[in-house]
Write a structure and sequence with these properties.
about 400 residues, alpha+beta, globular, 15 strands
C-alpha cells in the first residue's frame, strides 16, 4: 500500500523495556502497562492527551477487561473523548496498526492518532470452550500462549519447525546461525554503550507494582543473557537432526510500545522533523515456512513506495529465529551488518504485538542518528505470514 500524506513526528515514538517472561512484568496487566508507559511518554514529550483525536490499540494475548480495550485505555491516559479499534495479527500486529492509522492520514484526517501495542505473554489465559455434547459436557481447554506456540492449525507445526523447514531448503547450517546470533548480540551491546545513550532516546520506564502502595521503576530490558560463540556452539538443536538451538531463537517477553501518526503537514508543525510512511506490504508463503515471509512482504512495501532494496539505508527485522535474517540477506543481498544495528527481538525478546513497534521506533532513531534516510522494517507472523513498512526520516 502506497502512502504520500502519512508521517510519524520525530520524538513521538517510544517503547517500554522488554522483560523476559515470568520476570518483573509477569503479573502486571498489559493494559495497566500500556496506560502507565503511554502517560509517561506523552508527559515527557509535552503532548497533552487532550490533543489526541483517535486511538488504535494492538494486542494478541487477552487480559482482564480487554473487552473494553481502546476506549478505556484512551480514557485512562486522559483522552476521555477518544475511541478507536483494537487489532491483532500475531507478530504483524504493529505493522497493521500503523498501516491503519496511516490510512486515516492518507484520507486527509489531520488529527493525531495514537497507536499503542501491548502484550504480556507471561501467565497467558487458559480458556474453556463449552462442549455440551462432549462426555459429561467436558469443555475444550486452550492455553492461549503455549498451545499456539506449539501448533499452527493450518500448517500443523510448531513455530520452530517452520524455521527448520526454511533452513533445510536454503541449506543453512548451525554454525552460520550461531554467527548471525552472535552478531546481533554484539550489535545490542552498542545500544547499551555510553550509559545506554541510544535506548534512552526512546525507552520509557515502567512503574512496576511491588506492594500495595509501592512501585519500582524498571528502566531497561530485563532477561537478556550474555552470549558467546563458545556458548552458542555448545547448545544442541531443539529438534533431532535440526540446526536451530535455543540460543538462535527468541524468547517470549512482556512489554509495550507506541507512536503518533498524522499528516505530513501536522507532523511538521510538531517541530522535530518527520518519519514519512512510504509503503506497507503483507505476504503469505507456503504453509509452515514462516521465516520466508518477510522477504515478499518487504518487496511489496518497497514496490508500493517505488523503491528497491538498494535504496534502503537500514533494515530492522522481527527475527524470532536467526534463520530469518540469514535467509533475508541471501535473498535480497542486503548486508547482515546493516540490519538491526542496535539489536533486535532475537536478543531482547518478543512480546508479540509491540515487537514490531519497538523495531520501527529503533529504525526511526537509527535514521535520525544518521541524519535521515530510508528504512525498512519487516518481520514474520505466526505460521506463514509477513508484514513490512518503509519509512523515510527527513527534516
Amino acid at each position: 500500500m502506497k502512502f504520500e500524506r502519512a508521517a510519524i513526528p520525530l520524538g513521538l515514538a517510544w517503547s517500554s523495556p522488554f522483560v523476559r517472561w515470568q520476570g518483573a512484568l509477569s503479573e502486571m496487566s498489559s493494559l495497566d502497562l500500556v496506560v502507565d508507559v503511554t502517560r509517561r511518554a506523552l508527559e515527557q514529550r509535552r503532548l497533552p492527551a487532550t490533543e489526541l483525536d483517535r486511538i488504535v490499540l494492538g494486542w494478541t494475548v487477552p487480559q482482564p477487561a480487554i473487552f473494553y480495550g481502546a476506549p478505556t485505555v484512551a480514557a485512562r491516559i486522559g483522552a476521555e473523548g477518544v475511541t478507536g479499534p483494537m487489532m491483532a495479527q500475531a507478530c504483524a500486529t504493529s505493522a497493521i496498526c500503523v498501516e491503519t492509522a496511516a490510512l486515516g492520514a492518507e484520507r486527509g484526517e489531520e488529527g493525531l492518532t495514537l497507536v499503542v501495542t501491548t502484550d504480556r505473554t507471561s501467565n497467558g489465559p487458559v480458556l474453556s470452550y463449552p462442549r455440551p455434547s462432549a462426555t459429561g459436557g467436558a469443555p475444550a481447554i486452550e492455553n492461549w500462549v503455549l498451545d499456539n506456540f506449539a501448533r499452527d492449525p493450518w500448517g500443523g507445526t510448531a513455530m520452530v519447525e517452520t524455521a527448520e523447514n526454511v533452513a533445510r531448503e536454503a541449506d543453512l547450517s548451525k554454525p552460520e546461525l550461531d554467527e548471525v546470533t552472535l552478531l546481533r548480540y554484539e550489535q545490542y551491546k552498542q545500544a547499551l554503550a555510553r550509559d545506554r545513550d541510544f535506548q534512552k532516546r526512546y525507552m520509557v520506564p515502567v512503574a512496576v507494582p511491588v506492594a500495595k502502595k509501592e512501585t519500582r521503576l524498571l528502566e531497561e530490558d530485563e532477561g537478556v543473557y550474555d552470549t558467546t560463540a563458545e556458548g552458542l556452539a555448545a547448545l544442541k538443536p531443539v529438534l533431532p537432526d535440526g540446526v536451530v538451538s535455543f540460543g538462535t531463537q527468541t524468547h517470549p517477553a512482556d512489554g509495550c510500545a507506541g507512536l503518533v501518526v498524522t499528516t505530513v503537514e501536522r507532523a511538521r508543525q510538531l517541530g522535530q522533523g518527520i518519519a514519512r510512511v512510504l509503503g506497507s506490504g503483507v505476504s503469505r508463503v507456503e504453509k509452515a515456512h514462516m521465516p520466508k515471509a518477510p522477504v515478499p512482504a518487504a518487496q511489496r512495501a518497497l514496490d508500493a513506495a517505488g523503491l528497491g532494496i538498494a535504496d534502503v539505508d537500514v533494515v530492522t527485522t522481527h527475527n524470532p529465529f536467526a534463520v530469518n535474517d540469514l535467509y533475508f540477506s541471501r535473498q535480497t543481498g542486503f548486508s547482515l551488518e546493516a540490519m538491526n544495528p542496535y539489536g533486535c527481538s532475537l536478543v531482547y525478546g518478543h512480546p508479540q504485538a509491540p515487537t514490531g513497534m519497538r523495531l520501527l521506533v529503533e529504525l526511526i532513531e537509527t535514521l535520525r542518528e544518521r541524519g535521515g534516510g530510508t528504512g525498512l522494517f519487516t518481520g514474520c507472523a505466526a505460521g506463514d505470514t509477513g508484514a513490512a513498512l518503509v519509512i523515510r526520516v527527513e527534516d
